[in-house]
Amino acid sequence: MFSIENIFLIGFVVFIIAILMLDMLVIDRKAHVVSIKEAATWTFVWIGLALAFSAFLWFFGDMVHGIQNYADLQAVAAKYARHLTLDPNHFEASVQSYRHYMTISYLSGYLIEKTLSVDNLFVMMMIFASFGVKNTEYQHVLNWGILGAIVLRFIFIFAGAAIIQRFEWVLLIFGLFLVYSGIKMYLDRNKQEQMDVQHHPMVKFLSKYFHVYPHFVGDHFFVRAKKQGNTYTLVEHGQHGLLCLTPLLITVIVIEFSDIIFAFDSIPAIFSVSLDPYVVFFSNIFALLGLRAMFFLLAAVADKFRYLKVGVSLLLLFIGVKLLIHKYVEISAVGSLFFIIAVIAISIVASLVLKEKPKASENHE
């Protein structure tokens, strides 16, 4: 028999998949180049949905865990928010306190994931450029990439939560890894990332075990072709031929592979603001949903936010230290949220206000 938590989670997932299917099969069915205006509009739509969900948590967050009495509340808080002070004589006030804690944690997690996603978008741009994907096909690839990312995040988040519940010391490993990631990102902030497509581990694996057609064929992921030596020739519809992967599908798989690597930063980071897997999942998914629209918006202004990597590295350091000292020093959810907002705001303002210093080669010209 399903618990109330599982029923709510299934309903949430069905709702999200329905939105994605509507977006993929109806709204964006025809491949086209996304304008800045369209990208900005959809970015605000997804942010609006994320904020609407935060309002739901603020007023009805207890519904997620099916809290109906003080015993239910105490059991949930013992698992996910031990530091909260609950009053058995004031059930409503205690429930409200937990709702507010869920909301602040959700917003913090959403901002963390959104900020880390900005850095991930630069990698996606590099993948598209390396594989030679046409800009009319960006949407198609990103849609399937985000759908796959949602499935992967679901598995990682709830598996991670189960591990943390049994082995709390795993949080210390997360903390150390995030501190390392923050320092490495800061040191590598000015490096130009490149991708060698032929030697990418996922490309080599797929080429070894599957037939790969060497050219893009519209928005198709699979084609039928005949092979003579090392040459592939497409066959007519209805004729027999080898089932081949296209470069477009390989691009999607490489993006999914990259998302697994991204998750090693983002998921431990969000567990720093909440141990509630439902809150972590909700914040992750709403941040991912707006990723596609943000990609097209960021692609137009990517070069203007040169201090964003510094901000992201500082956030990773803060979150890592927070996890390392959580047993001894409790940094409040509200304090964490304000710090995250401040770092993001300062990074953006600094990028827009401070002029980039001319390179040494330019000074001698």
From TrEMBL:
Transmembrane segments: 6-27, 39-60, 141-163, 169-187, 242-264, 279-300, 307-325, 331-354
InterPro entries: Integral_membrane_TerC, Integral_membrane_TerC_rswitch
Keyword Transmembrane helix applies: yes
GO CC annotation: membrane
UniProt-listed Pfam families: TerC
Domain of life: Bacteria
Keywords, in A-Z order: Membrane, Transmembrane, Transmembrane helix
Subcellular location field: Membrane
Annotated membrane topology: Multi-pass membrane protein
Family: Belongs to the TerC family.
NCBIfam families named in the record: R_switched_Alx
The name this protein goes by in its record: TerC family integral membrane protein
